């Protein structure tokens, strides 16, 4: 997977993504991340990329030309015509399903807006997907792009040490993950649940599934509708709904 990020703050995204698991995946050449500085495509000697909005109103808008120039520079390098994701509170809300969909692509371009947004004409020409990371307004698209790249990258084979863990974590099957424990056996007077020490794998699996259902009912009841539960499991969930 090759990620290309069109941004006014290349260091912000590269610094944020070069550490930890994503950084290691880059070193292992499982993925590449390139930040393209939109300012390098400014069309005036002052390197300005923003201007006032026609029709008046507060704030500045990013101009079409520099954004288009940055996009063209990616097209020259990309192996295939990439999807272009514009990060915006007006987009569809990002989800695990969307991450799985994007993880199938070979190239992805993220367009990060700043100021009051970007001239509509260039968005019409290059953007294929409008994505929001939630119903709140941030100062720019960089953090949302980093969030999406993190969620997509961990689905790429080899990025996580343990490939099964990408499958079984929260939101798979629309159930939250069960509680987990490590040493010591007792901490602040709290003991690790007995069953986990029993070595009886079938019972442990059963306990974990029940805990997932209980936890989902208590914390994210909205997810239960989409979860596939047996009749008995539905009854268990119902007992733990707070409303
Ligand atoms: N840009 C500003 N706020 C945003 C959000 N919530 N999601 C995606 N991009 C944004």
Structural features, described:
With 243 residues, this protein is of the alpha/beta class. It has two domains: 2-153, Alpha/beta knot, CATH 3.40.1280.10; 168-240, Orthogonal Bundle (Trp Operon Repressor, Chain A), CATH 1.10.1270. It is built from ten helices and nine strands. It has helices at residues 10-17, 20-27, 64-77, 96-102, 120-126, 142-153, 163-168, 201-219, 221-224, 231-239; strands at residues 2-7, 32-37, 50-52, 60-62, 83-93, 107-111, 129-132, 186-187, 190-191. The strands form three sheets. It has a five-stranded parallel beta sheet with strand order 2-1-6-5-7, sandwiched between helices. A two-stranded antiparallel ribbon has the order 3-4. Strand 8 and strand 9 (190-191) form a beta hairpin. Helix 8 crosses helix 10. The chain is elongated, with a radius of gyration of 23 Å. Bound molecules: adenine (ADE). Residues 87-89, 132-134, 136-138, 141, 144 line the site of adenine (ADE).
Quick structural gist:
The protein has 243 residues and is an alpha/beta fold. It contains ten helices and nine strands. The chain folds into two domains: 2-153, 3-Layer(aba) Sandwich (Alpha/beta knot); 168-240, tRNA(m1g37)methyltransferase, domain 2 (Trp Operon Repressor, Chain A).
